[in-house]
Amino acid sequence: MDSPYRERLTVPWWWWLAALALAGMMAAEIFLGRPGVLTYVPYAVLVPLVLYALWRLGRIDIEVDDAELRVDDARLPREFIAEAVALDADARRDLLGPHADPLAFVIQRPWIGGAVQIVLDDPADPTPYWVISSRRPGLLAAALGGSSAGPAAPLQRDGASPAG
C-alpha cells in the first residue's frame, strides 16, 4: 500500500511582501492627495484584490491516496497510471517545450522547478500523460508507484525516451 501524499502549490512567501508593497505604491499613486474619505478607497480596493490574486495562484492541491490522484478539481484513478516519473527543471522544460504533446494535461507553476510526468494507460482517453508541478517530485512519483529519480529525458506514451 502506497503512503498518502499531499502538497499545496503555493506562491513563494516573498511574493506576498512584494505584492503588498506594490499594491501600496499603486494605491498611493492613485490617491495623489485626494481629501476626505477618498483617501482610503484605493487601499481598500487594491490590497484585498492583490491578496485574493495571490491566494488564487497558490490554491492548487495535489493529493494521492490508494484510489486516485487529485490535482485541484481533476481526478485520475490509479488504475490508469502506467508510469510516474520525477522530472528535474531541464526535463520539465523539454517536456513542456520541444517534446510537448498538445493533448497532455498540464498543471504547472513556473516558480516551481520540479514536476512529475504521469503516463496514462487508458485506451478510451486521448490524453497521453499528465505533467504536474511539484516541489517534491521524487516523493510524488514514489507515492504513485513510479520512479523517484529524475530521468535524462521525459517518457513518451509508449514508455520510450524521445529521440532528440
Calculate the mean pLDDT score and round it: 85
What order do the strands of the largest sheet run in, or round the barrel if closed? 1-2-3-4
**Share in helix:** 25-40%
- Please report the number of helical segments: 4
Low-confidence spans? 159-164
- SSE string, helix = H, strand = E? EHHEEEEHEEEH
Largest sheet: 4 strands, antiparallel
Question: How many beta-strand segments?
Answer: 8
User: What is the radius of gyration computed over CA atoms, rounded to a whole number of angstroms?
Assistant: 20 Å
What does the overall shape look like? Answer: elongated
First CA to last CA: what distance?
Answer: 37 Å
The oligomerization state is single chain
Structural class: alpha+beta
Q: What portion of the residues fall into strands of 2 or more residues? A: 15-25%
Protein model, in words:
It is a single chain. The chain has 164 residues and is α+β, with helices and mostly antiparallel strands. 31% of the residues lie in helices and 24% in strands. The protein is built from four helices and eight strands. A four-stranded antiparallel sheet has the order 1-2-3-4, covered by helices on one side. The chain has a four-stranded mixed sheet with strand order 5-7-8-6. α1 (13-31) runs antiparallel to α2. The two termini are 37 Å apart.
